[in-house]
Amino acid sequence: MTVKTYSVPNISCHHCVNTIERELKDVAGVTSVKGNVSSKAVMVEVVDASRLAAVEATLVEIRYPAEK
Fold this sequence. Notes:
The protein has two helices and three strands. It is of the alpha+beta class. The protein has a three-stranded antiparallel β-sheet.
């Protein structure tokens, strides 16, 4: 298992967090997603670090890109 926390500046409300959590849970290999409005962060657990690229691509696709 690999856990990564992303800074996502576009998070502004709980709806944003719900959208991100719902979309990322559908990414193959993602086992857990937890967003936080106040810290504008998303913690993602994946089965393998190679799945993080798909997570990052999905964040861009749904218009919540992670900061580099």
